[in-house]
UniProtKB/TrEMBL annotation:
Any one GO molecular function term: heme binding
Family: Belongs to the cytochrome b561 family.
Compartment(s) of residence: Cell membrane
InterPro entries: Cyt_b561_bac/Ni-Hgenase, Cytochrome_b561_oxidase, Di-haem_cyt_TM
Record's protein name: Cytochrome b561
One GO-annotated biological process of the protein: respiratory electron transport chain
Domain (Cytochrome b561 bacterial/Ni-hydrogenase) ranges: 17-184
Organism encoding this protein: Escherichia fergusonii (strain ATCC 35469 / DSM 13698 / CCUG 18766 / IAM 14443 / JCM 21226 / LMG 7866 / NBRC 102419 / NCTC 12128 / CDC 0568-73)
Signal peptide from the UniProt entry: none
């Protein structure tokens, strides 16, 4: 089934990413906004609502992980559509590095978060379902993972900002089709 979907995907790729790739990109973007917002604004909610806010954050993280892995597999099978006009090799190299950082970051962040939640040794929820947890908490591991998770999440602000700035530079300064390749298709 996956092979058939990837075949169909390849047939429709031209000067834009496929609808599936575009959809995953923007869905991940929205999930990242919700995940970050849940943590940034959790202090505004009463303590009784914090488990719900945490579940929203974790559920978004799991969704991001699944979508980023799917997107990576699709990207490995189908190369990016060409940028017109073709950028200088240095810009292409920087773009590849930037995308690698994005993939690594938004795959590593949820994995670290999940391992951290598991090692807390108490019930936690994702999508309204109780998730497995360690029989005995490992607070040293939890503290280390929490530090990594928060550091990478803070790095995420910078990476997202650079990614958005690069897309806008391509569109307005270099006047190529980089940004347009990821924009949803217009309905006719």
């Amino acid at each position: 089934m996956l092979a058939f979907c990837l075949f169909i995907l390849g047939m429709f790729m031209g000067n834009k990413y496929s609808g599936l790739q575009i959809g995953i990109h923007w869905l991940v973007f929205l999930l990242v906004i919700v995940a970050y917002s849940a943590m940034e604004f959790r202090g505004f909610f009463p303590r009784i609502d914090r488990p719900l806010i945490n579940m929203i954050h974790v559920s978004c993280g799991i969704s991001i992980l699944v979508l980023m892995v799917a997107r990576l597999l699709i990207r490995l099978k189908y190369p990016a559509p060409p940028i017109v006009p073709k950028p200088k090799p240095m810009l292409t190299g920087m773009a590849h590095l930037g995308h690698l950082v994005i993939y690594l970051l938004f795959i590593a962040l949820p994995i670290i978060g999940l391992v951290m939640m598991y090692n807390r040794g108490n019930p936690w929820f994702a999508f309204g379902i109780e998730m497995p947890y360690a029989a005995q908490a490992n607070f040293d591991r939890v503290d280390m993972l929490k530090e990594w998770h928060e550091t990478l999440a803070n790095l995420g602000y910078f990476v997202i900002g650079l990614h958005a700035a690069a897309a806008l530079m391509h569109h307005y300064f270099w006047k190529d089709n980089t940004l347009l390749r990821m924009m949803p298709r217009k309905r006719t």
